[in-house]
Amino acid sequence: MSDLPKAPATAPRGDKPGTDFSYVGIDAILEQMRRKAMKQGFEFNIMVVGQSGLGKSTLMNTLFKSKVSRRSALPVEEDRIPKTIEIKSISHDIEEKGVRMKLTVIDTPGFGDQINNENCWQPIMTFINNQYEQYLQEELNINRKKRIPDSRVHCCIYFIPPTGHCLRPIDVEFMRHLSKVVNIVPVIAKADTLTLEERDFFKQKIREDLRTNGIDVYPQKEFDEDAEDRLINEKIREMIPFAVVGSDLEYQVNGKRLLGRKTKWGTIEVENTTHCEFACLRDLLIRTHMQNIKDITSSIHYEVYRVRRLNESNAHPNGQAEGEQSILQSNGVPEVLSHEI
Predict the structure, then answer these.
(1) How far is residue 323's CA from residue 310's CA, in Å, rounded to a whole number?
(2) What is the rounded CA–CA span in Å between residue 85 and residue 121?
(3) C-alpha span between 280 and 56 (Å, rounded)
């Protein structure tokens, strides 16, 4: 008697073919975080410091492919060198592929342009501390906002003139004081004025000066989280300071429209890494390390300031240490001159 064909086994009720019963779905939190972040948007506050004529405004426009600099936003009659250091901020809402970011560019016109530049870093230190103080006061409010506006300076790009020799005293003093309160990324401005040999020698000399003076620029070694981070950051530290060229003008090169600077000998391509290191700087600030820069600002620099201010408040009920030099502004926020360790 021949065997009768067997009926296919029926799957238990409610089961679907290929269902993984061991799957919980914890990885879905990544998509939840992405949706929330997309709704909220991002904030990034970047300060540019350097004497006039080093191309600070042009570099910012080149970085973000927009007219984001103070020079681009002000009328011509207002765009002049101030007699003292002024600090100007301008904010833009930038959107790319559905990602929204509020970008604030903080310019420091007048820095290094005077005959006597002694202590010219102090107004900048005061401004950075003011932003920490405003954030702290918002945190201490009884009815504080659901999301505190973040005006803290996340990164300071310091422009070094292409002298080809070594750091000037003003460069050393600025970075020595400010590296304790903000992430500093040094760049050699207008690097196309140096030959390749001069550029390499200058970069090596600057790194020696930074080590000699105990100046830690971003990315700092002590904040490397693991071996992988250390490996990536070591390559960046070997490249610092970035030799950059900025330009918001396009030229025809081999049938392509490229950002560059035209000379009698050819076109310097801004995004060509064999010509300059602009692309490496852009990747560091935007594509690979932006969130890390913000995290270090919040968990290291701001935390140092917050702990010191709260200790002062506990020691002195009025919240101000004896002998501390502070200026009460019209908005009631004290200008603390320094929070160096």
Answers:
(1) 16
(2) 9
(3) 17
Which residues have C-beta within 8 Å of that of residue 337, sequence separation ≥ 6?
122, 125, 126, 129, 325, 326
The contacts of residue 25 (CB under 8 Å, 6+ apart) are: none
**Residue 267 to residues 3, 16, 241, 254, Cα–Cα distance (Å):** 84, 62, 23, 11
Is residue 72 classed exposed, middle or buried when 0-12, 13-18 and 19+ CB atoms within 10 A define those classes? Answer: middle
CA nearest neighbour of 162 among 55, 68, 72: 55
The verdict on pTM exceeding 0.85 is no
Quote the percentage of the chain above a pLDDT of 90: 56
**CA 27 vs CA 30, 36, 243: distances in Å:** 6, 15, 41
Torsion angle of the four alpha carbons 266, 267, 271, 275, in this order, in degrees rounded to the nearest 10: 30
State residue 334 phi and psi, 5-degree precision: -75, 140
Side by side, which strands form the sheet with 88-96?
Answer: 88-96, 99-107, 42-49, 155-160, 184-188, 242-243
Provide the token pair at 219: 């990315």
Q: What are the beta bridge partners of residue 269?
A: 260
Which pLDDT score, from 0 to 100, does residue 321 have? 44
Question: Other CB atoms closer than 10 Å to residue 311's CB: what's the count?
Answer: 11
Query: How would residue 13 be classed by pLDDT, with cut points 50, 70 and 90?
Result: low
Q: Are 334 and 84 in contact (CB under 8 A)?
A: no
pLDDT computed for residue 169 by the predictor: 93
**What's the CA angle centered on 197, arms 194 and 201, to 5 degrees?**
90
Distance CA 183, CA 304 (A): 14
| Peptide bond just before 241 cis, omega within 30 deg | yes
CA–CA dist 218, 284 (Å, integer):
10
Query: What is the rounded CA–CA span in Å between residue 256 and residue 116?
Result: 47
